Structure formats: C-alpha cells, structure tokens
C-alpha cells in the first residue's frame, strides 16, 4: 500500500482533559456534593417542626467562603475532643475560685463553650470585635486540607471522595445503632414519626419542604455541572440524576433516625434532671431519707405534700417538668450540632470517642460539599481560558484557596457568626432559585426541548419519557417560580432580625432579638441580587455580540444562540452538541 | 451524792441542748448523701459514724490551732434526721458552756476538708456543710493545651501531603518532558526501530478496533447493506 493512503498516527494530546477513574467516583462525588451538612441539621429540624455561569460561579465563591468557616468550627471542636473531660462538659471557675464563671453559670457549659470559647461572640453585628487567633489557625488548616484535596482538580478529589463520601454513612450507622440503645430514644423517634396532620395545612410547611429539597441537592452551584463535565459524552445521565436525587433524599431520612434518637435521649435526660433537682429540694427541705422519693412516685409525693404542707412546697419554687416541652425544644443549623448534640454526647459513656467520630463525620460531609463548590469556582476559570494555560493547576488552586482564606478571615471576627447567618440566608438561597429557574427556562424554551431530548438520546440511548418532558417544560419552572415568590414574600413580611447573644441582656440566657441596621440590609440585598443580575446581563451582552456578528456573517450557529445564559459555560463550539450542560438535575 | 450527780448531768444536758439547736449561734448544719455517693456500698449512719464525725471535728480544730485542746466530748450533735442531716457546735475545751466562734470552726473545716471528706468516703457535694462554701479546685490543666498538640499533628500531616503531591507533580512533568524530547530525537535521527505497517507505527495502532482505510471506506456506498 502506498504511504499516501495511510492514516496519520494519533498524537496524544498534551494536558488532555482529566477524567474520572471510574463511574463510582463520579457518583460518589455528586452524592458527596449533594449530601452536606444540611442533610444532617436542616432536614431533621424541618421534619420536627411540621411535620444559574457567572451567576452560579459567584454563588459558588460566596458559599465556599462561608462554608469553610463552618468547617473551621467543626475542626475546632474536633481537636478539642481529645481532651478528657470534654471542655464543654463543665463550667470554668471564676477568678477567686468561689464559684463558676457567671456567664457560664447562667446559661449552660455547652452554650458557654460555643459562644465564648469558640466564637467569642460580640453582642451585636455592628461590633466587629477582634480576630480570634485559634479560629484563624483552624481556618488555615481547613483551607490547607481543601487545597490538598483539590490540588489537581478531580484527580485528587476523586481519590479523596472515597473517604469523605463513605465515612459519614459508616458513622451515621454507628450512631444509629448506639442511639437506639439509649434511654429515651424511642420517645424521640415516636415524636419524629407521629404525623401532625394539622401542620400540613400550613403553607409554610410546604415551602420549607420545597426549599429544603432544592437546596439539599446543591443545584445551580455549577459544581454538579463541573463534575458531570468530566464524564465521557456517552454517559447515562438520566440514571445518574435519578440515583443522586434518591440517595440524597434517603440520606436525609436515614440521618433523621440517629438525630432524633439522640434528641429523644437528651430530652429524657433533661426531664430526669429536672425531676431529680426537684426531688433533692424536697428531700432537703423535709429531711426525708434519701431515695424515698423516686421519679416514679414523684407525682404521688408532690400531691401528698401539697395537701399537707402547701406553703413549704410553694416556697421551694419547683420547676414544672414536662417531657413534651423538652422534646419541643427544636433547633436547626449550627445550634443543633454545636449545642444540642455536644450536650447529648457528654451524657453518653465514652463521650470522647463519640465526639471524635461525630466531628470527623461532619468534617467529611462538609468537605465533600466543599469539593463541589471549589470545582464550581475552579473549572469555569480553566475552561473559559480566562486564566492562561501556562499557569499550572496546582498553582491556580493554591491561589484560589489563598484568596478565599484571606477573605474568609473576616468570618473569624467576633461578629463572624452573624455574618455567616447573613450569607447563608441571602447568598445561599435566593440567587440559587433564580439561577436554577433561568437554567430550566433556558434549556426548555430557548434551547428547545426537542433538541435537548435528541442530545439526551444520543448520550443515553433512549429518548426521555413523558415524565421528564412534562417536568422540564411545566412543573419545574412553575414550582421554582412559586417557591421563589413565596420565599421573597415571606422575607418581606417580617423585618429582618437576628438573635444576638448578649450577656448583659435582662432576659439572658435567652437571645436578644435585634434588627439589622440599614447598611447590613444593603449588603444582604447585594448578596442576593448580584449573582442573579449577571444572568440577564450576560444574556444581553451575548445578544449584542451576536447581532454585531450577524451583520458580518450570514450563518448563525444554533449553539451560540443557546449559550445566551451564563451557565452554559461548557459549550464547545467545535462540536455539535454541548457536552455537559445537559446533565442537570431537577 | 447521787442527787448532786444527777443535778450536774441535767444541767449539762440542758446546757448542751441550749448550745446545740437548729440555727443556734455558731452552729452548723451538716448534710450527708451517702446513698448518692456510694450506691450499694452505702453504710448506715449510726452512733459509730457520729463518733467518727466528732473525732474528725476535734482533729480539725486541733490541726487548725496548735493551742486548741478540743476533745471529742466538746463536739455536740443534735437533731439527727433520716436524711442524714444534723447540727453541731464546738464548745470551748475548758468550760462546756460557750461555743467556739463560727469563723474559727469554718476556717478549720476549710483547711481540713479533704481529710474530712475522705474519712467518710464522700466528696464536697455529698458531705455538705451548709454555711461553708467549698473552694473549688481548678481543673488540672497541662502546660500546653491538648488541642494545640492535636492541631500541630493535623497540620503536619496536611503539609506533608501537599508537599508530596506537589513534588510528585513536578517529577511527573519532568519525566513527560524528557520522554517527549527523547522521542523527538529518535524520530529526527530516523533510526526507526519502531515497526511500521503501511506507514503507521505499530504502537499507535489501536489493535482492538481497526482504523478505517480511506480507500475502502467509499465502497460502502457501492454495496448494498445486509
């Protein structure tokens, strides 16, 4: 054969795009990204009381900043868990050693350790306080861990995810088994699973459920898109989407069980403590022998003594102990983890081991979500060739981590936790709804469902069935719109307030309700609006660019049309289909 | 003789009763919670235990002030209840009519609290002197806080990991560069030891799937498909 007809040899590309080692790594990463701290602390709370590219890139940046600070707190508790006895189990003494520290005595040791020893919180958001050096150390360590795991993009996160995505499930199972053996666990579980049908009538319940599932899946961050982009084009993304969604929901339900067992245990122990304190007061007052009044015959004794010596009983000022009241003390978020759970852990035998396990689990949960956030920041910068190719990946990720660390230092101030609440409520909520809404509208009505279905068929081998068609076209946009409007309406109704920890407040240890000052409100609005505003801006920009181009060339690529909204960052103009933007979850 | 004895005894008893009664001057209430502290190993509070208590109080007074000649008979107990709680006073050694000032007793007890507690196998919480608040001992704190040590360990591990990955990345890049320059050199010299099949180096051939030979690809249109 003559050499002219031979096919030239294939040259391996330099710096070829990374790929997942295997499918399992990809699924684990998506699950790890979706399953975060919210599955542990937001979903169980909601169960208890009621029963989109510059845009999403910005949201990823903002969320990365404050999310890692939460991990900082987890790390701080983790390294303090090696002490025996646990530092949050007892109050420190005051200066002359005659009693306990006053702030600690009036609230509880656990509260004191969280608000004073960890956060060193200021009485309101305008007082910034000083930088807490121990938090800075932990923050540096956390960003170093994030850097270590994302140093080469998914090559390293793919390995790390095996540990960070699977370990939490192990620990949850251990907690489940231990939790079910604790006294009072059954009360907690009964409380969780007893449906209160009245609450279903409250629209707030449905709104909370919708927002929870939406935020839980970590949509519109760009992280899922980034992860999916590393798959081969012919990938069954329909199966992946369903798998991740189901696993995420199942995890929330599965996590509720140990959480509620532990909460039930804590409520029961609190109830018993209340009873015991009353019993001791009565025994001391009436000089009765020890163990004459037990918890079982407490009510009988009380009624007897009330009839015979009512003044003495009244003088004792006994607190009324009600188990239901203890169970009703619901908290979500950082309060659940750092206050209630730590209190429950002290009561368990072998508390050091439980504390260590628990905080490692939280750290893994948060870390796997951080991978998604960082990929959401990292990948667009690489893809859009904003950063020149000569900069190595290690250097770029190092620079990103360093910049984020420096900005996140402001969360280690005394008022840091107030700011994190602000970021969480404003940057992590409304923009996501808006971006997701635009994503769905963009794919369904601008790119057109027919073309989209064809792409999916090319990738998965089968056309998406009627369920997907209806949800993509109508149900998802409608639901997103409703959730968004309801969310905004509820926010506007009540003036934005926050609960401040102020030792000088009269009602201490209750938190003081304060209103945000105007400049803080302005920042809140900015956080919510800025990522959203980029979507129409970039669309407008692309439209203008395209109109200018249409004056020169006659043939308009349909793909350019579809890249109007900012999130379609990964359209490769050379190929006929955008590889990765199709794998969106509902 | 007998009458005088009886009279003195009753006088003494009355005097004692006046000295030791609830809320008397310089009297202290003591409360023990033996069952709470010892559970199944709890001992019963009887006359022997009371004797031990009197002995401990006398010991405490003597230890506190070297001049003191307190005897066991100087410690008066009264109003013992089932709780177990009682009142006690310390009388002057010389005359059994006046009581030692409360401040001295308090100081003596504070000084010897540890010894008193351990004699009864109890603690500050289970053996309470109601007017005397215990000086709480500070918790044992090591010179370097534990968390700092753990933090140091964690940080060292992280830095080691980062250094390892960065160095490995640099080495890999160097190896790749060296390999590509070697290959270029080989091809330039035209000393091709690579076997060639139709101008295609064998390594480049994907032996699983064949390459479409352009000459014959066009034939697909001529023949009808099966």
From TrEMBL, chain B:
It comes from the Eukaryota. GO terms for molecular function: protein homodimerization activity; transporter activator activity. PROSITE patterns: COLLECTRIN_LIKE. InterPro entries: Collectrin (IPR042944), Collectrin_dom (IPR031588). It is a single-pass type I membrane protein. The chain crosses the membrane at residues 146-170. Keywords: Cell membrane, Glycoprotein, Membrane, Phosphoprotein, Signal, Transmembrane, Transmembrane helix. Residues 24-226 form the Collectrin-like domain. One of its GO terms (biological process) is SNARE complex assembly. Residues 1-17 form the signal peptide. One of its GO terms (cellular component) is extracellular exosome. It is found in: Cell membrane. The keyword Repressor does not apply. This is Collectrin, amino acid transport regulator. It comes from Strigops habroptila. The gene is CLTRN.
């Amino acid at each position: 054969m003559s050499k002219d007809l031979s096919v030239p040899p294939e040259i391996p590309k330099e710096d070829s795009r990374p790929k997942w080692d295997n499918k399992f790594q990809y699924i684990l990463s998506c699950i790890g990204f979706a399953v975060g701290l919210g599955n542990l602390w937001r979903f169980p709370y909601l169960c208890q009381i009621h029963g989109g590219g510059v845009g999403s890139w910005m949201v990823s940046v903002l969320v990365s900043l404050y999310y890692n600070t939460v991990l900082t707190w987890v790390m701080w508790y983790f390294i303090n868990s090696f002490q025996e006895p646990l530092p949050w189990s007892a109050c420190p003494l005051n200066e002359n050693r005659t009693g306990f520290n006053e702030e600690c005595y009036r609230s509880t040791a656990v509260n004191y350790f969280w608000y004073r020893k960890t956060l060193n919180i200021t009485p309101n958001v305008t007082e910034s306080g000083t930088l807490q050096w121990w938090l800075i150390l932990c923050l540096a360590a956390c960003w170093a861990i994030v850097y270590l795991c994302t140093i080469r993009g998914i090559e390293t996160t793919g390995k790390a995810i095996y540990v960070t995505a699977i370990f939490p499930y192990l620990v949850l199972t251990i907690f489940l088994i231990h939790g079910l053996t604790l006294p009072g666990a059954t009360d907690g579980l009964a409380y969780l699973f007893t449906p209160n049908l009245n609450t279903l009538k409250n629209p707030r319940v449905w709104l909370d459920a919708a927002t929870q599932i939406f935020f839980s899946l970590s949509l519109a961050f760009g992280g899922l898109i980034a992860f999916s982009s590393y798959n081969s084009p012919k990938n069954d993304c329909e199966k992946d989407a369903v798998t991740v969604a189901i696993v995420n929901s199942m995890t929330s339900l599965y996590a509720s069980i140990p959480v509620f067992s532990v909460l039930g245990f804590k409520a029961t122990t609190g109830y018993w403590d209340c009873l015991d304190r009353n019993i001791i007061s009565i025994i001391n007052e009436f000089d009765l022998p020890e163990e004459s009044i037990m918890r079982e015959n407490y009510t009988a004794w009380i009624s007897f003594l009330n009839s015979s010596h009512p003044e003495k009983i009244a003088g004792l000022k006994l607190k009324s102990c009600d188990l239901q009241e203890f169970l009703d003390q619901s908290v979500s978020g950082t309060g659940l983890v750092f206050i209630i759970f730590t209190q429950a852990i002290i009561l368990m035998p072998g508390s050091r081991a439980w504390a260590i396990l628990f905080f490692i689990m939280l750290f893994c949960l948060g870390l796997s979500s951080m991978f998604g956030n960082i990929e959401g920041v990292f990948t667009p910068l690489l893809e859009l060739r904003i950063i020149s190719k000569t900069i190595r990946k290690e250097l770029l990720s190092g620079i990103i981590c360093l910049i984020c660390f420096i900005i996140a230092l402001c969360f280690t101030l005394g008022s840091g936790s107030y700011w994190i609440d602000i970021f969480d409520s404003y940057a992590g909520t409304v923009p996501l709804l808006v971006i997701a809404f635009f994503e769905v509208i963009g794919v369904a009505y601008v790119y057109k469902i027919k073309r989209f279905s064809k792409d999916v068929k090319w990738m998965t081998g089968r056309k998406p069935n009627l369920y997907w068609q209806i949800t993509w076209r109508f149900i998802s946009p409608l639901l997103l719109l409703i959730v968004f409007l309801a969310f905004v309406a509820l926010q506007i109704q009540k003036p934005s307030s926050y609960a401040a920890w102020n030792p000088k407040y009269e009602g201490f240890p209750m938190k003081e309700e304060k209103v945000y000052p105007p400049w803080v409100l302005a920042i809140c609005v900015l956080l919510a609006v800025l990522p959203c505003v980029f979507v129409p801006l970039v669309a407008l920009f692309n439209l203008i660019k395209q109109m200018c181009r249409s004056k020169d060339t006659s043939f308009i690529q349909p793909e350019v049309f579809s890249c109007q909204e900012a999130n379609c960052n990964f359209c490769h103009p050379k190929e006929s289909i955008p590889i990765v933007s199709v794998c969106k979850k509902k | 003789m007998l009458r005088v004895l009886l009279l003195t005894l009753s006088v003494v008893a009355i005097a004692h009763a006046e000295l030791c009664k609830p809320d008397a001057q310089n009297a202290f209430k003591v409360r023990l919670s033996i069952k709470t502290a010892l559970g199944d190993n709890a001992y019963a509070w009887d006359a022997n235990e009371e004797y031990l208590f009197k002995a401990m109080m006398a010991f405490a007074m003597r230890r506190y002030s070297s001049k003191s000649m307190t005897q066991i008979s100087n410690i008066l107990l009264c109003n013992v209840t089932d709780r177990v709680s009682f009142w006690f006073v310390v009388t002057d050694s010389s005359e059994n009519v006046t009581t030692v000032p409360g401040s001295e007793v308090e100081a003596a007890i504070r000084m010897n609290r540890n010894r008193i507690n351990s004699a009864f196998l109890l603690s500050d919480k289970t053996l309470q002197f109601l007017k005397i608040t215990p000086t709480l001992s500070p918790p044992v704190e090591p010179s370097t806080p534990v968390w700092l040590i753990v933090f140091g360990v964690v940080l060292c591990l992280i830095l080691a990991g980062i250094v390892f990955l960065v160095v490995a990345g640099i080495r890999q890049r160097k190896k790749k560069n060296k390999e590509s320059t070697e290959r270029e050199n080989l091809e330039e010299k035209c000393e091709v030891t690579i076997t060639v099949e139709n101008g295609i180096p064998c390594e480049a051939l994907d032996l699983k799937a064949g390459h479409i030979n352009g000459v014959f690809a066009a034939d697909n249109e001529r023949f009808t498909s099966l």
